[in-house]
Amino acid sequence: MSKLVPTLFSPVFLLLCLFIQNPVWAAEGDPTDQPGDQDVVTTLDTQIQDLKKEILDLNRDLFLLEEDLLFPANTQFAVFVSMDVGITFDLDSVQLRLNNKVVANHLYTERELKALKRGGVHRFYTGNLTSGEHELVAFFVGKGPKNRDYKRATTIKVTKGTEPQFVELKISDKESNHQPEFKVKVWEAE
Amino acid sequence: MIKRFSTALLIACSVLYLPSQFACAEEKTETLEATEVYDLRYGETLFNFFQQKYFSAITNLMVAEVRAPIKIQGEDPHLLLGGLYLAYGMHNEASKLFQSLLSSESLPTSHDRAWYYIAKLRYLKGYIPQAEIALTKIKDTLPADREAERLHLLANVYMKQNNYPKAIEVLKNFSGNSEWEAYAQFNLGVALVKAGQLEEGTELLKEVGNLEPFSISHELNALRDKANLALGFAYMRSNRAVDAEAHFQLVRLSGPLSNKALLGLGWSYTNQQRYKEALTPWLELQNRKALDTTVQESLIAIPFTIEKLGKPRLAMQHYQHAIDAYAEEIDRLEDVMLAVQRGELIEAMRPANLNDETSLPLGNFGLPKSVTAPYLNQMMATNTFQEAYKNYQSLLHLQYVLKHWRTQIPSYELILTERRNAYFTKLPEVASDERLKSISRMQKQRDDFSAEVKRIQKENDAFGLVSEDEEELLLILANVKKKLDTLSTSQDISEERAKYNLLKGILAFQLESGFIPRLWSVKNNLKELDRALKKTRKAKRSLVKAANNAPKFFEGYDQKIAWSKQRIRNLLARLASAIGKQERYIQKLALAGLVKRRQQLENYHVRARFGIARLYDSLIIEKDKKGEQDESGQGEEDAQ
Questions:
Q1: d(CA A125, CA A152)
Q2: Which of A10, B193, B436, B552 fits a disulfide with B201 by CB distance 3.0 to 4.6 angstroms?
Q3: What average pLDDT does this structure show over B568-584?
Q4: Disruptive mutation site among A4, A12, A175 for chain B (greatest number of B CBs within 10 Å)
Q5: For the whole model, what pTM was predicted?
C-alpha cells in the first residue's frame, strides 16, 4: 500500500513533500522563478533605488530651501516634545501658547506615543520669533496616576537671540511621588 | 532613566528579514526599549523611524548632515542611516555607506555592526562566501542577542554551502536560551533532511518539535509546529508513517499549519491502511472555510480512501463532489483573473492616503469582491509580492511628495518676489533719510562740547557752567554795574555799589561752590551723549548691514528654484514610468500565481474525473463479470 500513494497521487504527494523539499521559510508558489523575469525584476529594482536616492536628495534640497525662506536662522524657533518612560502619564494632546496666543495643538496617535516612549523626539512647532523675551506656555492633557484626567501647564520665559532656538518639553516620571513631571530644556544652536 | 541600546542594530532585525531563508526574522517583534538621545535631530529621526516613516527619517539625517552633522551620538547616526536605507529598500546606498564606515577610523563597535549589515546584505544578494567573510570579521562587540543572530546567519551561510559539519559546529556556540538557536536548529535540521542525512536532521528537528508548548513564546510555538510538520513529511518520505503520524499530531489544531498537518495525518493513516481513520482529519479539513491547497487535496483524497474501504459507489459520489467543487473554483478563479487584468487589483492596492509613508502590510486594505480569492491572498503573502507592493507604495508616496513640492514652489517664488520688491522700495527711502546723515554732525557737536568741558575744567571756569537763570542774573548785574558807573559821576551811590558788590559776591560764591558737582554732572551728561551716539552708530551699522544682507534673502534662490522645478519635472516623468512598470509587474505576479493555481485545480479536476471513470469502469467490469457468472449459472441450471 505504501507504494500506492506516490504512484497514484504523485502530484499530491509531491506537494506534501514540498514542505520538506523547500523548508517552511520558502515562499510558497513564488511566481518569479524564471531567470528572464529575475533580470527584469533586478533592473526595475535598481531603477527604483536610483529614483529613491534622487528624490531624497531633491527632498533634502527643497527642505533646506523651505527652511531658509520660511524660518530664517535669525528668527527660527522650534519646540520639541519628548518622553522619558511615561509610566505615570498617558499623553493625549499638547497645546502650545506663545505670548498668550495658541500657536500649535497636537493630538497624539498610539503610534506616535510608542515612538516617543522609545526615545523619539517630536518636532511639535516651528515658527519665527523676534529677538527679546517671550513667554511660552505648554498644556499637557492626558491620563495621570490611577487613570485620572490630568491637565498640566508649564510656563517658561525664553530670551530669543539672533541664533535659532530650540525648546524641548520633556515628560518624565517622578519616582519619589509617582507623579509625572514636565521639564523644559532650551537647546542652544551649534 | 532610559536605557541605551543600539537603534541601528534594532533595525537589522526589524528590516532585514532575509525573505528566502529566515523562518524567524519577520516574526520577531519590536522591542519597546528607549534610546538615549543627545541631539534633538537624532531624536526627531528616531521619532520617524519608530513609526516606519523611513523617507522622513532619512531626510532628517540628510538635512542634519548639511546644517551641522550630528556628532554627540557617536557612530550611531551613520549606522542608523545605513539601516534606514535598508529599511527603505535602498540596498545599494546602504552597502556604500557601510563600506565607507569600514574604511573610516571608526570604533570597533561600529566596524562590527557595519560588517554585520554587510554580511546580511551579501547574504540577501546571494553572495554566500562573501557573507561568510563578513561574518567572520565581526569581533566581540555585538550585544548577546545580536551575536546569537550572527551565529544564526553564519549557520545559514554554511548550510547554503552544504557545509553541514561547520553549521552543526556553529550551533554549539550559542549560549543561553536564545530563540535564534532554535531557529538555527530548525533550519539546519531541515537542510540535513533535504541532504539525505535523515537521522542527523530529524534529531535536530525533534529538539525543536519537542519544546514544551506552554512555556515558550508564540514565535517558538509556531516554530515547534513547523518542526513537527517537517518531521512528519520527512518520515512520510521515508515510509515511516507511524513516526510521521506522531509528529503530525503534535501540530496545534488552531495554528496556521494545522491544515497541512491534517492533510499529512490523513496520508499517514492511509499509508498504514487505516483508511477509516484517515477520513477524520480530511473531513475536518472540508469543514474549514479557507479553500487552500490542502482542502482541495482532501477533496480528492477522501474518495480515494473511501474506495480503499470498498465503497466504490460512495467514492464516486465524493469524486463527483470534488469535480463540481473544482469546476466552480476554476470559474471563480477565471473571474478573478479577468478582474486583475482589468486593473481592479492595482486600484485596490492604491493607498487612500498617499501622504502616509508608513508601509501598510498587504491585506490591511479591503480588496473588492471581484479580486478576492484565497489563492490571491496566498500569493500576496509571498515575499516577492510583498516587496513589489512595498516598492509600489513607496513610488506612489514619492509621487505625492514631488507633487506637493510642485505646488509649494509658486509660494516660494512669491516670497522671493515680495522680498525683492520690499528691498528695492525701501532702500532709496532709507538711503535718503536725513537722520542718517545728521549722525556725523551730532558727533562734531559732541566733540565741541567735550573740548569746552575740558577747557572749563582746566581753567576752573565756574562761570562757564552757569545755568540759564544764573546767566540772566549775571546780565542783570552787568546792567546794574553799567548804570552805577554812569550815576557815580553825578551823585553818591556808595550804598548801591556796596549792595551790587554783595549780590555779585553771593552769585560768584554760589557758582564757585557748585563748580565741582556741576562739572561732574556735565561730564555724566557727556558720557550719556556718548552712549546714545554709540547706540545710534550701531543702529546705523545694523541698518547698513541689513541693507547689504537683504539681497542674500532673495538672491541665488531663483537658480535653486529653477533647478528644483526641472528636477521635479524630470523625476515625475521617470516616476510615472516606474509606477507603470511596477503596476504591470504586480499584475503579472498576481496573474502568474493565479495561472499556477488554475493549473493545479485543473490537474485535480482531471484526476477526479479519471478517478470517477476508473471506478465506473471497474463497476461495469464487475457488473459484467457478475452478469457472466449469472449467465453461466443459468446455463448450468438449464443444462441440468
A1: 19
A2: B193
A3: 96
A4: A12
A5: 0.74
CA separation for the pair B612, B590 (Å, rounded)? 33
- Would residue A110 count as lying in a domain? yes
Query: Which pLDDT belongs to residue A11?
Result: 35
Would you say residue A175 lies in a domain? Answer: yes
Q: Are A169 and A98 in contact (CB under 8 A)?
A: no
Tell me the DSSP string of B537-581.
HHHHHHHHHHHHHGGGGTTTHHHHHHHHHHHHHHHHHHHHHHHHH
Buried/exposed B43-52: b ≥16 CB within 10 Å, e otherwise: bbbbbbbbbb
Burial B190-213 (b: 16+ CB within 10 A, else e): bbbbbeeebebbbebbebbbebee
A41 located within any domain: no
Alpha-carbon gap, residue A71 to A73, rounded angstroms: 6
A57 in a structural domain:
no
Q: How far apart are CA B45 and CA B389, in angstroms?
A: 25
Q: How confident is the model at residue A86 (pLDDT cuts 50, 70, 90)?
A: low
Please report residues of B whose CB lies closer than 8 A to that of A53: 90, 93
| Cross-chain Cβ contact B90/A118 below 8 Å | no
What residues does A104 pair with on adjacent strands?
A: A96
Chain A residues with CB-CB distance to B297 below 8 A: 12, 15-16
Amino acid letter for position B229? L
A110: Cβ contacts below 8 Å, ≥ 6 apart: none
Class of domain B1-142: mainly alpha
- Mean of pLDDT values over B419-434: 84
pLDDT of residue B27: 36
**Whole-number Å distance between alpha carbons of B230 and B212:** 18
DSSP B214: G
Which CATH number does the domain housing residue A173 bear?
Answer: 2.60.40
Q: How many domains does the structure of chain A reveal?
A: 1
Name the β-bridge partners of A101: A98
pLDDT in tens, B146-196: 888 888 888 889 888 888 888 888 877 777 666 788 888 888 888 888 777
- What is the residue whose three cell numbers read 571756569? B461
Dump the DSSP string for B569-605.
Answer: HHHHHHHHHHHHHHHHHHHHHHHHHHHHHHHHHHHHH
- Closest CB to B395: pick one of A48, A56, A60: A48
Which residues of chain B are in CATH 1.25.40 domains?
1-142
Alpha-carbon gap, residue B554 to B549, rounded angstroms: 10
Rounded to an integer, the average pLDDT of B592-600 is 89
Give the cell for residue B6: 543600539
CB < 8 Å to B575, chain A = 51, 55
**Domain span holding position A130:** 73-188
